[in-house]
Amino acid sequence: MTISFALHPDGARAEVLDGRMRLQLADSLAYIKTSIAEQWGEEIPGLDLVVSNMQSGLRYPPSTFGLYYEIAFALFNGDDAAARTLIAELIQQKPCRSNESSVISLGQASPADFLRYQKFINSDPTTSIRIVALADDRAEYALTRFEAVLQRFKTVLPETYAEFSELIREIILVGSDKLGAAYDFDGGSFYMLWGALFINAEADRNDVEMIEALVHESSHSLLFSYTIDEPLVNNSDDELFASPLRQDLRPMDGIYHATYVSARMHLAMSALIESGQLAADEVAIALAARDADCRNFFCGYETVAAHANMSATGRSLMDGAYTYMQHFKSV
Q1: Handedness of CA 205, 211, 214, 216 (dihedral sign)
Q2: Residue 179's domain spans which residues?
Q3: How does pLDDT run across 229-252, given as a tens digit for each residue?
Q4: Is residue 219 situated within a structural domain?
Q5: CA pair distance 3, 13, nearest whole angstrom
Q6: How far is CA 287 from CA 103, 130, 154, 274, 331, in A?
Q7: CB neighbour list of residue 219: distance below 8 Å, 6 or more residues apart
Q8: Which of 187, 183, 171, 61 is nearest to 112 (CA)?
Q9: pLDDT tens digit sequence for 165-175
Q10: FRET label pair with 172: which of 99, 105, 204, 289, CA 20 to 30 Å apart?
Q11: Number of structural domains, the chain?
């Protein structure tokens, strides 16, 4: 199918984009397997099966993507011993049992994945973030709560949920360690942990705010999936600009993301309001969130339009967002 750049959610498009990400991982692992055979003079038993499983369409968890990047980093740095250990761990990875998004707490992750997630989330040298496991009683409550919100999300916004469930394999509930961190972690998704969505379950959110957070983070993942062939913007990370959602100056890629995601949240809040399935107090919350999303979009768009060196992909996506948002410019 021709991949659309429209802002509106599309489950079929998301399935294709997710498939591209996974085939890229399979191809990269196949290349590593061939290179190792040439350099080490040996085949790695089990790696063929992982690659063929991926090529056949089986979906592996986000940890598999993280392992691939760790293996690549180890090989690049000439640390063959670390690469062997990581490959042995990767071979033990199992495909996801279901195509539905699962919800786990960070404490349920394996010790290796726990450390892997902490490392990748804190990989930005300009931003100190540390996630921690939830206390047992908090984790039990949060898991039940998020499962209920996911079901409501699926019922009230079926098209958005259809896209979400193609992009996100695991929602990982975490706490935020504020000691020594520059920012209190609210939520995030990361290119090198494709399919994972991290949410701070200690934040006090109602259902509308939780659905907006899920749309927010999955929209970042949607943007990641478009960057296989080229980045969204070609600006250097050394170029810093005002951001609609942060007080500090940010690289253009971050501002682009924040701007686009604001349009997606506006769209989701509008659909929630129009669903007729919200209580009166929830409608008020959704209206206030939608108004904030509108302001944030146009604040960010002004910076993007003036200073972004957008790729063809980036321009097509942002044009789709603006085509939708221009109707609300005077609001």
Answers
A1: negative
A2: 11-200
A3: 999 999 998 999 877 667 778 899
A4: no
A5: 6
A6: 28, 32, 20, 11, 12
A7: 260, 261, 264, 265
A8: 61
A9: 999 999 999 99
A10: 289
A11: 2
